[in-house]
Structure prediction request, 721 residues.
Amino acid sequence: MTNIEKNNKKNIILSIKNASYRYSDAEEDDYALKDVSFDFESGKIYAIKGRSGTGKTTLLSLISGLERCTEGEIIFDGKSLKDMNLDKYRNSDIGIVFQSYNLLPFMTASENIILSMDVSGLKIKNKKEKAIELMEKVGLKETYKDRKVLRLSGGEQQRVAIARSLSYNPKMIIADEPTGNLDKQTENEILEIFKKLAHEENKCVIIVTHSQNVCDAVDVTYDLKKVKEEKDK
Amino acid sequence: MYILKNAWISIKRNKGRNILIGIIILIIASACTITLAIKNTATYLINSYKSAYDKEVTISFDRTNMMKGFDPSQAEGRENAKEKFDNIASYTVNDIESFANSKYIESYYYTYSIGLNGNNIEKAEIESNNMPNGFGRGKENNMSNTDFTLTGYSSKDAMSEFINGTYTMSEITDNAWDVAFDGNYAFINEELASYNNLNLNDKIILQSEDGNTYEFEIIGIFKENEEETEAPLSMFSNSANKIITNASAITNITSNNENIKGTLYPTFIIDSYDSVEKLQEEFYKKGLDENYILQTNEELALSGVSSIKNISSFATTFLTLTLIIGGTVLLVINMINIRERKYEIGVLRTIGVSKLKLTMQFVSELVIVSLVALILGAGIGAISSKGISNSLLENEINSSNERTEEIGKNFGGENMKGGMLDRGGERGEMHGKGMPIIEAYDSIDAVVDIKVLLELLGIGLSLVLISSIASMISIQRFSPLTILKERS
Prediction:
């Protein structure tokens, strides 16, 4: 049985195999991330935690296809990212949520979501209706649809960012410190949304965080520090 | 599709910057339109001049070739040169007709000159050494020994002295031009007429050295306008003893009298100056002596447009400078634009917009703004350039009108109808040789035609693309994660 067949059997959507990353101008043994291997299954919510400098953001950029591994490989849904069009991967297969939301400030909440649908090539008749539906799903009222994102609170912007990441129904959501700028109550509300996405919609949700509250709420936690320390040993 | 939608949203969002870009492109477009219109007008003028002069080819001695090895200091050298000159085969009317039978030749005409003595008239002469006017353009045959030079023209086109104003008809019979090219009719110099007390419709008799006589009826009297004569002390002009008739009259005389040798001077109207070399080869194959070469009037045709060429050249320089300065300003604005919009680029790249599509969006924004500015600029430029072009044409229009009238007067007040010279009508055609008919532009689309608009569009879009290079390169180099990190 091949690794891919084994992964399929375990419902593994993403598999990181001995992934390392070194900046092009770094010295030979100076890795930002070295020899990391994790598996992620659909229907589960994961946390990747670690202190600053352990390579959390680097790992996130590799998983989200913003960078390519310098060694090892990442397999998504049976295909190596090396062989995939990463733009297409980002606008169809995965949704990314950032700590600082990364919404286009000159657009309204619904326009940000519709833009994402347009980029993914989603062909539905009423995109605005779908955007409102997604906003309601993440706890935003319809009245927010025509509001410029700069006029929304941090929690509301993050909900719009989540709605945007769901706009083309991806198999996996990757979130980088999604609650880092939010209060405790809003953090819990956002985590509830992620849990629902994983457990009710069978999506794989990966949250990069240093928050213990998040780690306590997820199904599996990978400690990047430990991995790194173990490798160092 | 979303690329255009995003581009439109960005244009609306950045009104100030896009208005600035629009104004710059509008200025460039107006300047380009005016410059291109000036160049268009200049090209029209140059072409008008070129077409005003028929593309003429004449046969001349290849003097450079003939003088090879000629040493004038030695008697032997001079003898050799004379012998060489005497041995050059001349050509006949039949040869000219054969030469003219070529795909490169549109039409032809010729002058045919012989020397005859007077029978019932006397040569206008006071000084014993004052010879009749030689032609100096072909190989002459001892005409200077006779009293008169009888020159036959094959058509009105061949009568270059009347066209260029050297001669002017002072008296002419009513039906002169109906009979001038068929039969023994003649135009004589008014000095000769006065000297011999001759009037219109009088008959003059000329005779060859062997005693044959030839009668001609006077149908016109002309005067020579040139003040200088070959013999400064002579009281008569160069053409005093020149009698003008038609070429067939001369052919009749020479074909019936082998002792009379004439000088033929053909002019061939060709389709293009580029054909001259091929035509010369063809002439040699048809028997033209290789000591002759073909010469064109191209230099003469373009001599009147040197100032126009300078204006055209200045316009090109102005256009180049405008494009360089305008292009640089646009490039800088684009670079600032990209720096300001790094975050937007980062977000779009993160959600999966490819570098190519992102580049297309930025270029589309500039193209949309540019197209609007180009259309407005072309309109402003077109309105302005009508006046500018017409002021450029003003002198040429006046000269053209004066020249047309003058040629009519030279031929005795005749309005040039019926002959090859009457080609009036459409712009660019002519009434007389050497000066085109030039009309003022009465509508904008005559100045700014489709060619100018296409050139403007090409220049504008090239400028936009070149000034977009900065954004294209930046988009290729930006790492979305780095941009977003910087923002955070």
